[in-house]
Specification:
The complex is a heterodimer of chains A (about 290) and B (about 350).
Chain A lengths: L9 H28 L4 H4 L7 H4 L1 H7 L6 H7 L4 H32 L3 H15 L2 H15 L5 H25 L3 H9 L4 H12 L1 H17 L2 H6 L7 H9 L8 H21 L1 H13 L2
Helix pairs in contact in A: 1-15, 5-15, 6-9, 6-12, 7-9, 9-12, 10-11, 12-16, 14-15
Chain B lengths: L2 H29 L2 E2 L5 E8 L2 E8 L1 H10 L4 E2 L3 H4 L6 H10 L3 H8 L3 H32 L6 H13 L2 H12 L4 H10 L10 H28 L4 H9 L4 H29 L3 H5 L9 H9 L7 H33 L1
Antiparallel strand pairs in B: 1-4, 2-3
Classes of the chains: A mainly alpha (about 290), B mainly alpha (about 350).
Chain lengths: ~290, ~350
């Protein structure tokens, strides 16, 4: 922000630059380092003798004959069945995003156009639901799901994730719908549209930015979820995040630590790309509820 | 909108929330009053040429029969809530009577699993939330002073810790901080202590998880504060500059009051998120020295022999009560505003 009259001293500018560079290093270096290390062998990235091996690739040269190796990736994706986990993640994500957008837009539109008191109370209830730790809900699901024998399969998890995601989606879309002037759908109603037609043909076409934002957040929730997927899916149906945990083993010296490293990179890369493309939507979503107070 | 139309529009999402958020809470409540069945034991008489011995073994057939007939377990009332793994009423009474100093009493109590987890969860919230607000605000101020052209990439770099899932975020840090990683190894060299490692000390583990929490949540506070800073009006700031206000005075008296509602919003959201801290404990493999309420529930649910539904449900209910206490001030304030608005 340029304050016009405000002139900054050079000292302040230097200090500011140093601060930002330090912060960016703290924020990004762990990811760069993990990416770099995923192309080494375990003896280098988790070196017991000298951490510099991770840069000089001492053991990677001995074991594979090159500076970099993609062994961890090929093994994790084939032997480690990470392909299956990513397939499951794709299925879960696609369904969760489409179903929660469908339910969320309908519900949020109704909430934004209702003048009744109960709309306020529904929004409050959604806020309380939003605050529930997911693990407490999971402890409520497990027993009934075992009894109904619907535990372990993807559809159950999809429905649960959709429901858990609804409170946030409702709040987000509600604040977006509020910005669409009421006159728009009122005039459509006068022209003889039903509420649903007004919603479908008049409101939705101007709502795409909001829908994309809400979709991105549903996607991040479904893609990143650990609590629900780890406890409600069986081994066969695990998505990426619980799969990464299963590579860790019970302690550091078992399991396939390098598989976990390459799996972390494989799972994170698409997410980063997506956020890079949709950065503006992510930020507008995070601030939608906040800035209006 | 007429009530009937509202109903049909809201039905799908309302049904999803009632079925999968409302009912599970009730289901958790019911489960918390039941405990898993005891194993049925029977006496087996074993005779050999040297005489007969009677031993007690578990009757697996009978046990599974009872479990099938009553899968929920036996009714336990508030028994699970008061047992050693939860509120530990008996134990606390005993400690109160037996220990000599108050310090020793506190020591004993904080070693009970539930209180240990509660103290970690509260400590985590207490240290992470204010620091997240502070760091987020400083980053927002600082980025706001940078030339507009390069802000995009800087914002992207800043929000990276927030968009990865906590498990991945904590793993990525853990692999660096661990004694075999880049930071851990260098700290060992620096301190000249080859045995210094994250797992060796409880305090170090707690500090690491708290630092992770700040690292993970600050970008969220940053994004919200950054957007709020864009809406701060220019005129009062220019007037303040003419009047000779320093930079800090301007922030304190103009910027902060303007974005105050946003600060409460961020504080509330990050408090809610911090209260459910769970994945970093798994990511840092810190189960030994740091347990949170959510982790206790998880641990009961992945129990290898029998899933401890009752125990997990009781902890869940108490966690929900904790959340309710945290949210109460906000709800009361909203209720008052709502009443005056009418």
């Amino acid at each position: 922000m340029d304050y016009g009259l405000d002139t900054k001293s050079t000292r302040l500018k230097t200090f500011n630059t140093i601060f930002i560079i330090t912060w960016l290093l703290i924020a990004c270096f762990p990811f760069i380092w993990t990416f770099w290390g995923s192309f080494k062998v375990r003896a280098d990235f988790f070196s017991r003798s000298d951490w510099w091996y991770a840069i000089s690739a001492f053991n990677t040269l001995i074991e594979t004959g090159g500076q970099f190796t993609t062994n961890a990736y090929t093994q994790a994706w084939t032997e480690g069945e990470f392909w299956k986990a990513s397939k499951n993640t794709i299925i879960v994500t696609v369904f969760v995003v489409s179903i929660s957008l469908f339910l969320g837009t309908l519900g949020a539109y109704a909430l934004s156009r209702s003048t009744e008191k109960y709309a306020f109370w529904i929004l409050m209830a959604a806020l309380i639901f939003r605050a529930m730790p997911h693990i407490t809900l999971v402890s409520g699901y497990l027993f009934p799901f075992f009894e109904l024998q619907i535990w372990g399969i993807l559809p159950t998890t999809i429905v649960v994730l959709v429901a858990i995601n609804q409170p946030f989606t409702l709040w987000l879309l509600y604040s977006f719908f509020k910005t669409v002037p009421k006159e728009l759908d009122e005039s459509a109603l006068i022209d003889g549209c039903s509420y649903f037609q007004a919603f479908r043909h008049i409101i939705m076409p101007v709502m795409w930015p909001g829908v994309i934002t809400a979709g991105l957040f549903s996607l991040m929730l479904a893609y990143n979820d650990f609590t629900v997927t780890a406890l409600l899916l069986n081994q066969e149906n695990h998505t990426m995040v619980p799969k990464i945990q299963s590579y860790l083993g019970t302690n550091q010296h078992e399991g396939n630590l390098m598989w976990a490293v390459s799996a972390v990179v494989s799972a994170t890369a698409p997410l980063f790309m997506l956020v890079m493309f949709f950065q503006r939507q992510v930020i507008s979503g995070l601030t939608a509820g906040a800035v209006k107070g | 909108m007429p009530n009937k139309t509202f109903f049909w529009f809201f039905l799908p999402t309302g049904l999803a929330m009632i079925l999968f958020i409302g009912l599970p809470i009730i289901s958790t409540g019911i489960q918390s009053f039941y405990a898993q069945h005891d194993q049925v034991v029977k006496e087996v008489k074993k005779c050999d040429p040297f005489g007969c011995t009677v031993s007690i073994v578990v009757d697996n057939e009978e046990t599974s029969k009872i479990r099938e007939a009553k899968p929920l377990g036996k009714f336990n009332g508030f028994g699970t809530y008061t047992d050693r793994n939860h509120l530990a009423v008996e134990e606390i009474k005993k400690f109160w009577n037996e220990t000599e100093s108050f310090g020793a009493f506190v020591d004993q109590v904080t070693n009970l699993p539930f209180y240990k987890a509660l103290i970690f969860t509260l400590t985590y919230c207490l240290f992470v939330t204010p620091n997240v607000l502070l760091l987020g605000f400083i980053i927002a101020l600082s980025l706001n002073a940078v030339a507009r052209k390069i802000r995009g990439p800087l914002i992207f770099g800043t929000i990276l810790p927030m968009i990865v899932t906590p498990l991945v975020g904590s793993l990525v840090l853990f692999w660096m901080i661990d004694s075999q990683g880049i930071i851990g190894a260098n700290i060992q060299n620096l301190m000249n202590d080859p045995y210094l490692s994250l797992k060796s000390s409880k305090t170090l583990t707690w500090i690491t998880i708290i630092i992770y929490g700040i690292w993970h949540h600050s970008p969220f506070a940053f994004v919200v504060f950054y957007a709020a800073l864009q809406t701060v009006p220019q005129e009062p700031i220019e007037a303040a500059i003419i009047d000779g206000a320093s930079r800090i005075q301007r922030i304190k008296h103009i910027v902060l009051p303007h974005i105050y509602p946003v600060v409460t919003f961020v504080a509330l959201i990050s408090l809610m998120d911090n209260f459910r801290v769970f994945e970093p404990i798994i990511g840092f493999s810190a189960e030994g020295s740091a347990q949170s309420l959510s982790w206790l529930i998880y641990d009961n649910l992945v129990n290898e022999e029998v899933i401890l539904f009752g125990s997990a449900a009781a902890t869940s209910m108490m966690t929900i009560i904790g959340i309710a206490i945290l949210l109460a001030p906000v709800l009361i304030r909203t209720w008052k505003e709502f009443k005056t608005a009418r």
